Amino acid sequence: MRGDIAAAERHAEEIRRLGGFLRVTAAVVPALRARIAVARSRALLLRGARNLALDAWHEAEGALAVAEGAGATGLAAVVVEAARTAVREHDPRKVWLVGPKSFFVDTPDGTRVDLTKHPFPRRVWMTLLERHCGPNPIVTSAELASTLWPGMDPSSPTVRNRLKVTVWRARDLGLRNAIVQASGGYMLAPDVRILRWQPSDATVAESH
């Protein structure tokens, strides 16, 4: 009788351990699948395949939902949280894809803004983009004017008017939802997320 009890206790312990393993696996495996799908989504977006990138991102969403429903704890919960962050931060519906030297910009809806023949609007975009990730993303009107027309008085009515027209043109070309007015100048909207295409090695630099 005592031996039967001991055997039952051993089996109960094995079942408990196996159950814990299965619970961890049920959370970790789909969480990792979500991370892989996010990486695939980013790679597709980098190649300009936004629709396929969106499909992969939705796949990541689905895998994340499975992971979240598995009741993960401990280390498995950390893995799930990392997957949740990746899915949230790499939504292709919110990404602006920037081409080499900002000659083109793909908006989140997939529209391509060609800046090749618009050097001044392109310079506005590049200047604001450069400051986007810094502690002070606002570029004052004087700074922006001095960048566009060095040597000219940025406070002169002529230069101030030129700047307003140039910024208006940049926004009118398709950057309206990205370029916003700020205190004393302009900036990229805080929710703008950037993928920079570097064709030499196909690497991605992110900012948001």
Provide a descriptive summary of the structure in words:
α1 (2-46) packs parallel to α3 (74-89), α2 packs antiparallel against α3 and α4 packs across α6. This protein has six helices and eight strands. It folds into two domains: 2-90; 94-207, Arc Repressor Mutant, subunit A (Orthogonal Bundle), CATH 1.10.10.10. The strands form two sheets. The protein has a five-stranded mixed beta sheet with strand order 3-2-1-7-8, covered by helices on one side. The chain has a three-stranded antiparallel beta sheet with strand order 4-6-5. With 208 residues, the chain is of the alpha+beta class. It has helices at 2-46, 50-68, 74-89, 119-131, 141-148, 157-175, and strands at residues 95-98, 104-106, 112-114, 139-140, 179-182, 185-188, 193-198, 203-207. The termini are far apart. The chain is elongated and about 70 Å long.
Structural features:
elongated; alpha+beta; 208 residues; disordered C terminus; Arc Repressor Mutant, subunit A; 3-stranded antiparallel beta sheet; 5-stranded mixed beta sheet; 2 domains; 6 helices; single chain
